[in-house]
Amino acid sequence: MVSIKSFLNVVAIATIFSGVNAAPKCVKRVVDCPRHHLTPQEIQAIIPAGNHTLTEMVLEYNKIWSNDNLSFDPNYFKNFTGGQHPGLTWIGCSDSRVASDTLSETLPGQIFTHRNIANSVSEDDINSLAVLQYTIEDLKVQDIVISGHTYCGGINAAMDAAEFHGPIAKWIKPIADLYEANRAQIDALSPGYERNYALGKLNVKRVVDIVGNLEMVKKAREGGQPVRIHGWMYHMETGLIEDLKVTNE
Q1: Strand residues in the chain grouped as ranges (E)
Q2: How many domains does the chain have?
Q3: What domain range is 118 assigned to?
Q4: 144 — alpha (psi -120 to 50), left (phi > 0) or beta?
Q5: Which of 80, 99, 131 is the last residue of a domain?
Q6: Which residues form the signal peptide (predicted)?
Q7: Whether 122 and 217 share a structural domain
Q8: Which of the residues are catalytic?
Q9: Tens of pLDDT, residues 108-159
Q10: Is 93 among the annotated ligand-binding positions?
Q11: Domain edge (last residue) among 28, 61, 80
Q12: Model pTM score
């Protein structure tokens, strides 16, 4: 259970560190426009006091978020109903700490997102392939990002694959194979962060190469449609994204 007091403390801290205190409302919500942060008092007036489950808090905060956006523009949500035109597709990890829109400060409609354990893609994974096909053939997105991150649990699992079974074991097998192929190099590093980071980078490069060699990508390029596959690493400890300079284009 999450107490309203604890929740408000988090909001207050986030407001302080954002450098914004009840920021003025903007006419349009664009990237360079200061976002409005409700004060703890405003939130407390909306959400009843007491203990709440996270699901209850999400439902209540969704109402605040909706009303907040409508206060900027009464047509804010209606503007999304005419279709989407994202500027990039993000294939990232399902880890709850690495939401692409949050860490990139982007708005709805800017990033087409697909997430799974350890940001992986395989040629027999119909889920990821369907996302990529829609990205390329329908949305005509030219930039696809494969984003790994530090402290990735999926990467750790791949280095200890014998401990896992079922769908997870099958899913991480390509990464486990990658680890075995580079084991001497990786195991020469310090356990923990350095090994996780090293294998995480290799895995991003592996997926960049897989996506870059898909027939749908080759076909698009042959037809004159630019498709660039980028490899990034999000550093959880700093909040910064590292371009691994492994772009396939």
Answers
A1: 2-3, 51-52, 88-93, 111-116, 143-149, 228-235, 240-243
A2: 2
A3: 88-248
A4: beta
A5: 80
A6: 1-22
A7: yes
A8: 93, 95, 97, 149, 152
A9: 999 999 999 999 999 999 999 999 999 999 999 999 999 999 999 999 999 9
A10: yes
A11: 80
A12: 0.81
